UniProtKB/TrEMBL annotation:
The lineage of its organism: Bacteria, Pseudomonadati, Pseudomonadota, Alphaproteobacteria, Rhodobacterales. It comes from Ruegeria pomeroyi. This is Histidine phosphatase family protein. InterPro entries: His_Pase_superF_clade-1, His_PPase_superfam. It holds the Pfam family His_Phos_1. It comes from the Bacteria.
Length: 169
């Protein structure tokens, strides 16, 4: 059996309230629109998660809320964890190896998510933005593995990659 990973960086966050700490920053208007566009894109392509694992930061929670509004009941009850907040690639992999769904959506932050994306795939997509992984960037990756515990570096095959500007501009 295969496993599918939907790897998404949170959408664009607001910087207008300097009293908020990094963990508490919400999405801005463009970020909400981008997250909705990514959710609609995933739905149209049939990439619907049965499990969601996310950083517990406000902007990742809001990204999931906006995405899920476009995807219906996909994802079930998300798991929000502090261990994915600004996590390096190795910590992201450790979290993913604990997953139980067949199609998992993982929401995180740069720089770790960009590093993780570059290391988890066998071959990067021919897209200029893949390695810097801008806000809202989403990769759909397939693994020929029976469990998430079996995955490792350079094993994923990229099925799709998109950045929100390709959907909203």
């Amino acid at each position: 059996m295969t496993r599918i990973l939907i790897l998404t960086r949170h959408a664009k966050s607001a910087w207008d309230d300097i009293s908020l700490g990094d963990h508490e920053r919400p999405l801005n208007k463009r970020g909400r629109r981008s997250a909705q566009a990514i959710g609609a894109w995933l739905r149209k392509r049939g990439y619907l998660p049965d499990q969601v694992i996310s950083s517990d930061a406000v902007r990742t929670r809001e990204t999931w809320t906006q995405m899920s509004a476009e995807m219906g009941q996909a994802g079930g009850d998300p798991t929000f964890t502090r261990s994915l907040y600004l996590a390096p690639a190795q910590h992201i992999l450790a979290n993913l190896r604990q997953a139980s769904g067949r199609v998992v959506l993982l929401l995180g932050h740069n720089p770790g998510i960009a590093e993780f994306a570059g290391q988890i795939v066998d071959e990067a997509p021919a897209h200029a933005r893949f390695f810097d992984y801008p806000t809202g960037a989403t990769t759909v990756i397939e693994f020929a593995r029976d469990t998430w515990g079996d995955i490792g570096w350079h094993q994923g095959e990229v099925l799709d990659f998109i950045v929100p500007r390709e959907l909203t501009d």
